[in-house]
Amino acid sequence: MTVRSRAHPISQRESSAAGFTLVEMLIALVIIAVMTALMVAFMGQVRTLLRIENASEAEAQVDAVTLFLETMISNAEPLPLLPSAPDHVLYFKGSRSEIQLSAIQPIGFGSNALRQVTLALRRVGDAGSSLHDLVLVGKPRRARSQSDGPETEVVLVRDVAGLEFSYMENSDQQISWQQVWDNPRRLPMAVQIKLTISRGGKAYPSKGMAKLKLAAAQ
């Protein structure tokens, strides 16, 4: 007796259901791929906008600090720095990265005071760090003596990668630029400022020129 096996063919309805499920999976994969591509493009645009925003903030900050330095230096008073040697009286002292001067500063709402000011760099972190804070150190003073009062230190900007001052001398109608100013009883005609700060591994430079208002009256 021969037994014949009979295959059971898949019905057309079951075949259609399986084919429809496969199409749905393909469509879903396509949708996911499109959404992923759109998300990657969107995130790239967001990162670009954030970089532009951060760069704009850094540029605005370094320009604002440079403008502040211009204003402060241009208002320097021809008064002896204290302490000052009788045979070498200095009204203004400057190096490539530090300045000492006397100027009238605001100390509160609607009030001003004469202060001796030092603009200098303070190292950030360990001795191997290349970044500094630019600080303003102020000491109250009278016209010819220091006043009793606390010395204040204010950080103007952090992460300074470079600071350079140079000083204009007008001697015998000959204009020259000096890297150090220690001329007795004289103010420089102008001070050139080059300031660079670091943000996110990038450098943001700014340049300024402070013309001292009382230098011409010397």
Q: Which blocks of ≥5 consecutive residues have pLDDT under 50?
A: none
C-alpha termini separation: 133 Å
- Give the overall pLDDT as a whole number: 83
Oligomer designation: single chain
In short:
The protein has 218 residues and is an alpha+beta fold. It has one helix and eight strands.
Question: What features would you describe in this structure?
Answer:
Helices cover 29% and strands 36% of the residues. With 218 residues, the protein is an alpha+beta fold. The protein has one domain. Strands 1, 2, 3, 4, 5, 6, 7 and 8 form an 8-stranded antiparallel beta sheet that branches. The model has no long low-confidence stretch (mean pLDDT 83).
List keywords for this structure.
single chain; 218 residues; alpha+beta; eight-stranded antiparallel beta sheet; 36% strand; elongated
Topology:
Elements: H1 12-74, E1 93-94, E2 99-108, E3 111-123, E4 132-140, E5 152-171, E6 174-178, E7 190-199, E8 202-211
Antiparallel strand pairs: 1-2, 2-3, 3-4, 4-5, 5-6, 5-7, 7-8
